[in-house]
Amino acid sequence: MRKKFIISISIIFFAIILILGCVKIYRVYKARQCGILLAFDDYNAESWEEYFDLFDRYNAKVTFFVNATEPTDFCYDAIERGHEIAFHTINHIDMTTITEEEVYIQAIKPIETFREHGIELTSFSYPYGAYSGELNDLLLQYYKVLRGAYYYQVVGKDVMRHGFVESLSIDNIHYSSDEEFEKHIDSIIAELSRNKGAVVGLFSHAIGGGDWCITGERLEYLLQKANEAGIQFYTYKELQQD
To answer: What pLDDT score does 241 carry?
Structure first.
């Protein structure tokens, strides 16, 4: 009986050691895994919803920075699919041209409205990428992360927990051909792959053939190439909680 007891304890002990070892390995793997923060701005719910299944196919979670006075059915549907709802002002207004009172109405008061409807807003993107140091100081009292719109930065995940970060538009207007788009995406993915644990922010607007859109084919190219390279897609909120 005593021998069986000792054997049982030994098995439990080694099982715990094995589990802890696996947890540590997994944490190291997650810390070293690079990623893309893919986002969509404005409010193009019908366009976005058509691609929910494509995002699922590549296990890609994205952030939708919406212009809205309150949550819509799309917001709840997106969250249910694992995506993030973030904010982009009510009326897509240049924040550098309005008063502090108007900033409160456009970007701060909606936090309470969304919270009352069960959605916590923690990420904000500036319309037109227009911001100032004063706006950053004010809005970071209410949001964890603020996002620009001029270029991409390869940064560590810890940078995404609080503060201002830039992001790059990959809308159709910036590319003269699919080949040019693909070459650019390939270079971004290659740079990411050389920087373990790093992330970059990319964004578009609608999904389709217009200037301020990304075509479905280009979107899938990005998702597929990132997947092949072992690059994960993160939401902004996910890294704030990491």
So the answer is: 82
